[in-house]
Amino acid sequence: MAEPRITFLIAARNDDHGGSSHLRVRQCLRHNRELLDCRNVGFEILLVEWNPLPRRAFLSELLAEEYRELSAFIVPSTLHDCYTLNPHMPFHEMAAKNAGIRRARGEWILVTNADIVFGPDIITALANGRLDRKTIYRAERVDIAESQLASLDRASPTTSIRGERAKAPSYMGGAGDFLLASRELWHRLRGLNDVIRWTTRAKDWQFLLSAAARGVPIESLGTVYHLEHSGGFQGTPPELRDTPAAHFGGIWDFEFGLPVLNREDWGLARCREVPGPHERISILEPPPRLFTPEEDEEDRRWQEWLSPAPDLFDPGTPEILYAILRCYEERRPLVLRPDQPRSAVAAAGLSRVAVSHGIPVFWNWRWPSCSWLTLPEFPTEPSHLSGAALVLEERQGSWLAKHRDESPAGSLLPAKHPPRRPKFNRFLVRRLLRAFLTGRAKGYRRLAVFGAGGHTRELLTWGRPDWLQYEAVLSSTPSGATLGSLPVFHPAAFDYTTVDAVLLSSASFEGEMLELLDDLKPGVPVLPLYAEWPAGL
What we know:
This protein is an alpha/beta fold. It folds into three domains: 6-303, Spore Coat Polysaccharide Biosynthesis Protein SpsA, Chain A (Alpha-Beta Complex), CATH 3.90.550.10; 317-403, no CATH class; 442-527, NAD(P)-binding Rossmann-like Domain (Rossmann fold, 3-Layer(aba) Sandwich), CATH 3.40.50.720. It has helices spanning 21-38, 59-66, 77-83, 93-103, 120-128, 149-154, 183-189, 203-213, 293-306, 317-330, 341-356, 426-441, 454-460, 510-520; strands at residues 6-12, 43-50, 70-75, 108-112, 116-118, 136-144, 164-166, 178-182, 218-227, 272-275, 281-285, 334-337, 361-363, 390-395, 398-403, 446-450, 469-474, 482-483, 486-489, 501-504, 526-527. Helices cover 29% and strands 20% of the residues. The protein has a seven-stranded mixed sheet, with helices on both faces. A six-stranded mixed sheet has the order 18-19-17-16-20-21. It has a four-stranded mixed sheet with strand order 5-9-6-7.
């Protein structure tokens, strides 16, 4: 059998996720196939069906009868039970995709989702074949309602569908909806993270951040359309979204240890393929031992260290944040002496930001060996270090500040606007630290915060340095006169002469905010949190 040029890889199961999931799968597959056939693109469809529900037909078997280009691998419940470290997760999307990446036959492998339709620009790019084998391609996502399914069926290869466009930095947004790379690049990077077995949150972001840290170019290839549905993140109760009880797993520090690299047997390589219910379907049979005792111990150890405490708060991280800001203000070196692995993980991410802004940081911590993380290293504390250096020492989970000559350092936290029990979000606090340091270097003292949603409410819980004042909140859809004690303005009605810069506070709409400010007030200084994040930081 000739190898297809492109493998379209999806992971799914017959579980009614979001309601009528099998209808969405059929609609999207049919639409994408018609567009590809019109441009004579050679392709195969590879489905990995993870942990099928008992007493339900296999989704792969239903689709194989309809799509001659489709083959599948089934990951049975016995294999799922060997793999998972989270009893609340019935479906491990990235591990399923890795199993497919490992076995795909295409020259190019496009990892996508069962509710994604490709735009005409994507089809054109795939048809013309002018792709770089050393580059990862992703797409901008446009969310459309399920009521538009009929219009998708009638769409021609040149039709564009209107919807809510999600613009984001190269590593964010709906990154996992479209990831295209050559088969050799996928194998060199060893796929998406499948060592983390307790959550699937942000693994697509981590993959792109890790690739960027290795110097792999990331480019946008066009537009994909996502069929909105119930379920998923937005359909999960807010009180569960960040906890391990969410069906997609809880939050974790996915930027720690970049770049990451799965073990050599990534993609369920130890599993044997046995015939399934159809000639083009195989079942992956679990080996006697999927993980060695050492691997299992390592995975469980890092599960504890990379995850938040059960209450989801992050009590020690504010002290590290403001110790770094103190050292920047006073031009002091910083000595960190953590005694808990979870605290060392928090300190490592913030320390890398500090070093990038010229702050000397010294450690007394040594990591245990790890087979898949690039563990951050910092210089050890030298004996000749100045007594004026700020020392942050952890004792039984609490951080104590002093100078190296044992003189007291006083409180590190700001007096005017101290942190208010911020929740675990290492991704945000690292970017907030970088924004504070960048703003201080540029002499910004008065900021407007663009964004009046949950992101800004969370940002405010981290406090702000005493030299910095938030003057107002900007919102394109203001729903009240104030947010906390801050007045809220529409961006078109705000007097920008009253501030030094605008801090963008949104993980989803930062691109739109930049465009709007450029239209309304060209040249206004802006502090983005997520755009222009340095590779490897």
